[in-house]
Amino acid sequence: MGCFAHTLNLVVQSALTLESKVKTIVTHFRKSTEANNKLKTYQFNNGVDEPKKLLQDVQTRWNATYYMLQHFIELESSIRGTLGLLDKAPQSLNCDEWTLLKELCTVLRPFEEATKAVSGESYITASIVLAQGLLNACKKLSTMKFQNRTHTIIKKLISNMENRDAWKNFDMKRSKQIDEQNQDQPEYISADTASTSNSLSIWETIDTSVAKLMPSGTSKSRAIIEVQRYLEDGILKRNLDPLKWWKDHRYNYPYLSILYKRTLCCLGTSVPCEHIFSKAGLILNDRRCRLKSDKVEMLLFLNYNST
């Protein structure tokens, strides 16, 4: 399985036909010190405390096109005013071209959100299901009122995504796993999850799929059902680890798993405590009687967990 973020970038780059005027204007401001200074001065004169710079599109950098267009639109009035002050200014954009850029930002926003979601480092990304949600967001975009050029780009994006079988099959496998998990849940009823929102969230599809089944009855009845399912489950063999079993089945028994954390951590004897007490006596002896309590705790922790 390849990099999903890289696949997203290829889908966008192959469908996007960016206006050459935009790149020309951005390049001019990036290369010309005079033009860049006048852009800053124009922003200062209009009450902007921290003036922004134009960003250059880089093909090897994900979402670079979106960020360039976003900054370009945010500085629309400043760009228009500054171009009128330059002696050798590049050709400015007309009203239709500015409208096209704003529409492209709307189209590219779901892709930027998806790329950021799958590029995280502090959470699990392999289990994120968003390919189908991204495709549905593009299909919703195709029903909105845009220029013909914008609709052409949207059609190319949808076509590129639908033609990538590996990406589509990957998402279908994830969706199938969710359906199988929902089928295993007892006493569930269907819920009305028809979306009336016009938002373009890439998470709408997965949130709708997860919310299709809602637990019925009271909390007491669900607890009784969970306990009954637990009693009907097979007895664990003597040589197996109960902690590992509960870790593997904590999603099947969400409420009982909370209780097991409180009860199974209790010790049957005081032998482990006596071992720690004996090690504490070896660490805190007559020659090391000035150790602070937090230092002793750290030494005991390292000593006990080193083996």
Walk me through this protein's architecture:
This protein has 307 residues and is mostly helical. 62% of the residues lie in helices and 2% in strands. The protein contains 15 helices and two strands. It has a two-stranded antiparallel sheet with strand order 1-2. Helix 3 packs across helix 5 (76-83). The chain is elongated, with a radius of gyration of 30 Å. The protein starts with a helix and ends with a helix. Mean pLDDT is 79; it is low at 178-198.
Our estimate of the beta-strand percent is under 5%
Secondary-structure element string:
HHHHHHHHHEHEHHHHH
Give the rounded overall mean pLDDT. 79
From the N-terminal CA to the C-terminal CA, the straight-line distance is 38 Å
As residue ranges, the low-confidence spans are 178-198
Strand order of the largest sheet: 1-2
Radius of gyration, in Å, reads 30 Å
Secondary-structure-based class equals: mainly alpha
By DSSP, the count of extended strands is 2
Quaternary state of the chains: single chain
- Describe the sheet with the most strands: 2 strands, antiparallel
Proportion of residues in helical segments: 55-70%
Overall morphology: elongated
Helix segment tally: 15
